[in-house]
Amino acid sequence: MQTRTLGNQQVGAIGLGLMTFDQTGTQPRQQLLDTVTAALDAGVTLFDSADAYGPGDEKGAGAQGENERLIASILDELGVRDQVLLATKGGHVRTEGGGWDTDSSAAHLHEAVDASLHRLGVEQLALWQHHRPDPKVPYDDVIGTLKEIADSGKVARVGLSNANPDQIRAAHAVLGDALVSVQNQFSPKFRSSKPEIEVCEELGLAFLPWSPLGGLSDAKELADKHPAFAEIAAARGVSAQQVALAWELAQSPVVIPIPGAKRPSSITDSAAASDIELTADELARLDAS
To answer: Which of the 8 DSSP states describes residue 211?
Structure first.
């Protein structure tokens, strides 16, 4: 697999998003272990979690951090901690009944970092990302808290998620080299993050598209909803999902898609996208589709 730069570290050009659960709202451990093993075999070295990732059922707030605990135990069982860059996020919280809310207060973000350190069993988080702007807290105040977190030594790298170009520039002005990435939605279905990709390229930040295939349901229907991707895939003898990820990689050398995967075959298929070099004509056709 090709590699790309995230801060001062090289990672596989395709990462793995860990927010994947079955119909019951749980994530079977053996299934995830098999998927992580397949990802590592395919050259995937960036794994993305969050303290808010967990079952969205009646457990509600009790699910906070469940995904972190699960991936930490799997990496320990496999003995591969030193082979991966494990990223997580804070500031997006679960509520009673499995709903969602935001909390970017300084107290909560500092507590979130400490809790993730404990759940992941590390002394320093490799990449900690602010999950989502909080309408209750001015973004400049959030940036100040991120600076405190960066200066604390508890995180090696800081990232933003769901940030707009102005927010990215403001954070970079304060955080400098401590800020290494931005994670926003981008896919064949959702293309409005191109301005954020351009800012990331200008500032030397990695751009990590979340839901790069449009989410689990849209990923399955990508070929039907986006015919140009399906047609190019058929001509090349690959999947439409691979073409979508190759198209995203071609947007900029700073792009590192992080598709979710429930099965080993899914991440193996996604990882192969980094070896596809689309022609200028193919890219123009996909851009216009």
So the answer is: S
**Catalytically active residues, by annotation:** 53
**Radius of gyration in angstroms for the set of CA atoms belonging to the chain, rounded to a whole number:** 18
Structural domain boundaries enclosing 136: 3-216+252-275
Cα maximum dimension of the chain: 54
Domain membership of residue 229 (yes or no) is no
| Residue 6: strand pairing partners | 9
pTM check: above 0.85: yes
Inside any domain, residue 196: yes
pLDDT tens by residue, 122-139: 999 999 999 999 999 999
Please state, in angstroms and rounded to a whole number, the distance separating the CA atoms of residues 150 and 163: 18
Contacts 24+ apart (CB under 8 A), 74-79: 74/29, 74/32, 74/33, 74/36, 75/36, 75/47, 76/121, 77/33, 78/33, 78/36, 78/37, 78/40
